[in-house]
Write a structure and sequence with these properties.
The complex is a heterodimer of chains A (about 110) and B (about 110). Chain A is an all-beta fold and about 110 residues long. Chain A contains no helices and ten strands. In chain A, a hairpin with a 5-residue loop joins strand 4 and strand 5 (about 45-50). The radius of gyration of chain A is 13 Å and the shape is globular. By secondary structure, chain B is mainly beta. Chain B contains no helices and eleven strands. Classes of the chains: A mainly beta (about 110), B mainly beta (about 110). The interface of A and B includes residues 41 and 50 of A.
């Protein structure tokens, strides 16, 4: 079946603009994660959704970052008033349930100029 | 604090064997994952260890010692396509949040 998809694959934006990144998880996967990966670095956890439970937002770096997941499926990560330090690859992953391995999407490369 | 350590970079020869080590210090332990990430691509799942010992899966094996906070990924019969970064991740106290190492870049030479 289809894997995790993300859009756009690349986004270049000017400092101060808002951006929206989209993630379509694997059908039937109840857990969804957002990560950020800077060049040569490990994955930085941002936010976790599990079913209809309240999301774990503990990894969001500032209040400029927010995310939602509609209908337990598609998720959108929004970054307001982007800064240059927001430039990174944003990865979305889903898993069948919280204890299982995560399957990653191809990522969105965000460049803030 | 919580910490995952891996070598930054390793070089090996096609056809040989390489061992990539990972040491961790976390509050709690609920499993260790290895992922492969080719340049410019997303990580893909390789293996999962939650009990001590060796898990073998084709050319790849992963070992865990919980008492030592130590794991390794063993790659046999190396192929050029194995050139990638290998990420170690530990599930600590949380049932879902993984703590990720920075990854080991493996370079395979002919």
């Amino acid at each position: 079946g289809a894997g995790v998809s993300q859009s756009p694959s690349n986004k270049v934006t000017e400092k101060g603009k808002d951006v929206e990144l989209r993630c379509d998880p694997i059908s039937g996967h109840t857990a969804l994660y957002w990560y950020r990966q800077s060049l040569g670095q490990g994955l930085e956890f941002l936010i976790y959704f599990q079913g209809n439970s309240a999301p774990d937002k503990s990894g969001l770096p500032s209040d400029r970052f927010s995310a939602e997941r509609t209908g337990g499926s598609v998720s959108t990560l929004t970054i307001q008033r982007t800064q240059q330090e927001d430039s990174a690859v944003y990865l979305c992953a889903s898993s069948l349930a919280r204890i299982y391995e995560q399957y990653f999407g191809p990522g969105t490369r965000l460049t803030v100029t | 604090g919580q910490n995952i350590d891996q070598p930054t970079e390793m070089t090996a020869t096609e056809g040989a064997i390489v061992q990539i080590n990972c040491t961790y210090q976390t509050s709690g332990f609920n499993g260790l994952f290895w992922y492969q990430q080719h340049a410019g691509e997303a990580p893909t799942f390789l293996s999962y260890n939650v009990l001590d010992g060796l898990e073998e899966k084709g050319r790849f094996s992963s070992f865990l010692s919980r008492s030592k906070g130590y794991s390794y990924l063993l790659l046999k019969e190396l192929q050029m396509k194995d050139s990638a970064s290998y990420l170690c991740a530990v599930r600590g106290d949380s049932n879902y949040q993984l703590i990720w190492g920075a990854g080991t870049k493996l370079i395979i030479k002919p």
